[in-house]
Amino acid sequence: MEIDSFEAIVRLLPTVNVAALLPKSYLRPQLLNGGGLVSLHIKELEQTQRTTCLIYRDDGSLSTAARSLVQVTEEMFLTEREK
Span 29-51, mean pLDDT? Predict the structure, then answer.
């Protein structure tokens, strides 16, 4: 089954008695405490990378703050590639 919301996955896990691979960055303590869920560290997945994309409208209708975010993000990743 494919579910595209981490929150929905976490709520569904105890109900349907299944397991799921989720990004550790999403597993806040309040999701695990008292919810009947357990987190298992898998050493073999330590080198796994999660690809993330910044998606935005390309028609120039971005707010000033959004344009700034896009510009700073592009500059940061361009700098990283050059290293």
Answer: 77
Euclidean distance between CA atoms 6 and 27, whole angstroms: 9
Query: Helix (H, G, I), strand (E, B), or coil: what is residue 48?
Result: coil
Give me the residue spans of the domains in the chain. 1-48, 53-83
Does the predicted TM-score (pTM) go above 0.85? no
Backbone φ/ψ region at 21: left (φ over 0), alpha (ψ -120 to 50), beta: beta
- Residue 20's pLDDT band (cuts 50, 70, 90): confident
Do the beta carbons of residue 27 and residue 50 sit within 8 Å?
no
CB–CB of 13/37 below 8 Å?
A: yes
Of 33, 31, 6, residue with least CA distance to 20: 6
